[in-house]
Amino acid sequence: MCSDSETPGSRCRAPGPSPEGTPLAFVDLETTGLDPSSDRVVEICVERVHRGVMVGQICAVLRSDRWGGTAIHGIQEPQSPQAPTFATIADRVECLLGDAILVAHGAAQDTAFLQREFERLDRPFQCPLVVDTLALARQAFPDERHGLHALCDARGEPYDRPHRAAHDVAALRALWPHLITALAPISNQELVQRSRSRRVVEPAMVEMACRAAAHQTPVRVQYRSSCRGPEWLDFYVTSVITN
Q1: Are strands 130-132 and 101-104 parallel, antiparallel or unpaired?
Q2: 45-65 pLDDT tens trace
Q3: pTM for the complete prediction?
Q4: 173-210: b or e for each residue (b if 16 or more CB lie within 10 Å)?
């Protein structure tokens, strides 16, 4: 069994059992940026939970050949040569994720980064069973903001340090029972399928974006962060993908 370590995630209350009792692997990554093809994972936390009990865990700040994103996650580049790289923890990560349902908030980004890190090691890696709690939260609580911080705050769940992997996983585990109660799934497959549902974009918004791209006129959008007040952003639309 993969080894445990003491982190904030290990102290949060365990989620209720998932439908069918399949192990869950709660995952959060902090990265140097948003592009899996060039950016790297700088912090990882995976907690494997079976029938409400955490049975394995890894949480580490990683060395890599690229660094960045400090303004978001606040992590300083480790200087010690003993600090792990993804290559040195890959076996443990694979052990924790094996035969489990990967659970993450905005899971497509996390799975893309994991797959790319394994590809760099010439190791195939697939995540056939993935539950995206962001997609589930949009269905369970449609009238709310769906950032992890906002969802936990609305339910009185503590969320001490956003954008740190162990604390984000602790928040995920705290949110999980609320999602299960609200959605009442009858199976794991239902959770997987429901988290794959796509948001529908209003045709008027697509038309506006296409017009802005064609005429290169600036667009002003209100961005609502999960942990800050709303702010207005000005940008140019360069292209629109509608598929």
Answers
A1: parallel
A2: 999 999 889 999 999 999 887
A3: 0.74
A4: bbbbbbbbeebebeebeebbebbeeeeeeeeeeeeebe
